[in-house]
């Protein structure tokens, strides 16, 4: 079973999504996209699979979003992709790709909707929020 997560280990949401994938009994392919950014073609594939455009995948917080004036509608999708490739921190995370779909998993528990296997145990996010009970069911 192939699951890929575009991951930032410094991000709690990304860490929680990764932990839920592992809690389903699967070890995903982990791509630390800040170290190994996707190609433009790969980013376009992910966006197509999500049924969205680059604007919906842009991250504002902790990025050069404002300095680059990326809220301005003048930028085309192609130009936004170029900005994301030049500054991978602009790519929101985590993006998870499974046989059941591709999704930006914010909040992290959205990953549960696209995992092919059920959770194997209870899961509580880093902030203490219970997400899955001891029967593997979403709470």
Largest sheet descriptor: 4 strands, mixed
Radius of gyration, in Å, reads 15 Å
What fold name goes in the CATH topology slot? Glutaredoxin
Q: Which word captures the global form?
A: elongated
Number of helices: 3
The domain tally reads: 1
Overall structural class, as computed from helix and strand content, comes to alpha+beta
Give the termini distance in whole angstroms: 26 Å
Please indicate the percent range of residues in DSSP E strands (runs of 2 or more).
15-25%
- Going by CATH, the homologous superfamily would be Glutaredoxin
The main sheet orders its strands as: 2-1-3-4
Average pLDDT rating: 97
Structure description:
With 139 residues, the chain is α+β, with helices and mostly antiparallel strands. The chain has helices spanning 12-23, 40-50, 77-86, and strands spanning 4-7, 29-32, 95-98, 101-104, 123-124, 130-132. The radius of gyration is 15 Å and the shape is elongated. The strands form two sheets. The protein has a four-stranded mixed β-sheet with strand order 2-1-3-4. Strands 5-6 form a two-stranded antiparallel sheet. The protein has one domain: Glutaredoxin, CATH 3.40.30.
